Amino acid sequence: MAIRKQRPFPLHLTPFELYMLTDDSPDYPMTFQLCTELSGGLDMAPFEEALADALSLHPLLTATIQPAKRGVECWVQDTETQITPIYQSSDDPDLHDACGFIDLRQEPGLRVWVRQEDDRVFLTTQFHHSSCDAVGAYQFLGDWLYKYADLTGEKDLPPREEIPPGDLRSRFNFTVDLSRFLDGQGLVRAEWSDYERLKQRSFQPLWSPESLPDAPRTAFPGYLTHTFSRAEYREIRLLAGNLGVTLHDWVLSRLFRMVRDWNEEHGAPDAHQTDFGVLLPLSLREPGFRPLSACNVISYAVVGRSAEEIDSGPEFLRGLGRDVDEVKRERNASSFISLLAAMKLYPVEMLEEVLGRNVCRATAVLSSTGDATKYFRTRMPLEKGFVRCGSLRLTTMTGISPLRPYTKIAVSLSTNCRRELQVGMRCDPHSFSATHASGLLRRFIGSLTEQEFR
Prior knowledge:
Elements: E1 11-12, H1 15-22, E2 31-40, H2 44-57, E3 63-67, E4 73-77, E5 86-88, E6 110-117, E7 120-128, H3 134-151, E8 224-228, H4 230-242, H5 247-265, E9 275-283, E10 298-306, H6 307-310, H7 314-329, H8 335-345, H9 350-355, E11 364-371, E12 382-383, E13 386-389, E14 392-400, E15 409-415, E16 421-427, H10 434-447
Parallel strand pairs: 5-6, 9-11, 11-15
Antiparallel strand pairs: 1-4, 2-7, 2-14, 3-4, 6-7, 8-16, 9-10, 12-13, 13-14, 15-16
Helix pairs in contact: 2-3, 5-7
């Protein structure tokens, strides 16, 4: 008997992918950027060959969305668009418009820019969030650099594990266990029958300063970074430890404090008696998670605090720690997961209502990846603390989450092979000039080393 070969396409969209697509717009694209810096000389021919090889392992990154199965929009293979790097020079004009909206009905959800300066290579990749999450993006980049290392003569590479393309058909099951929402007869449990249960708390957005329509925006790719040295990073960890919390919880507390103080100083109404919320992306990939090509295996949780609670001193900090521990434990059963399940069980028409486009669902986003190279599917050799990729050495990798109309600031935490702490910040370019964004970053960075907790 002939064995039927599994093909990746066409693929129905999962509820998460549909959510990301529906919440997409030209002004607030549902895209995120990763910036990778490498040292050494770039050989373009194997670099482009390695890109094509990596894309063959991650088919969603080369797919578009078109009517397919019974006229329903599905992922289909794009046979016309070839994804190749756009090579920049140091004097290229601002590329904000190019690094913006990706229409998945017209093009795949990946763009690539490369800039070379002396012996440094700056690689910027933009991903549509329907196509993959940050972990999937790092896996793709790891495969790309692995193949480049192989093509440029790297001798110490372990074999790379293959990814069965048919596994993409089960990607929704990695995110949501529908059995939680059904009774013994396969019907929706009563407690999940009310749309109102899925609607989430609203918060005050970060208040915009006076409009400056002609003020310059933050330069491409649209976010700022600061790097704490290894010694500074150690001091911040010690500071958090002395307060009885993790580094992440300390950073979260400082983010709450900054947005609360900023809003009060800039005349936001009721800033002293309103609620603020920070969205936390949560990976659902467990230890030992089997190989899967780039896609979304992620949930969200929002931690909220009133202005009064933010002013409550040590209890505020301890409470944050408890809440973060709880959302991590319950990440497979969060309210966002419940929304995804409802989208699978109910008509899709509910999505617009639940999204609440005119409501602030989170004041800010805080994402934390640690060392991004831990997501590479294959470990590559190290040289003086740097990942060696043939003729290149990986220096840093940073990324930042998308912004929404009322979620105007995103912060990211990551580390590198030298055990330095990298903090990224993106501010809404429609509301904050480059000067304001730089000021917010300096203010936030300064707060992380404050010895006196408030």
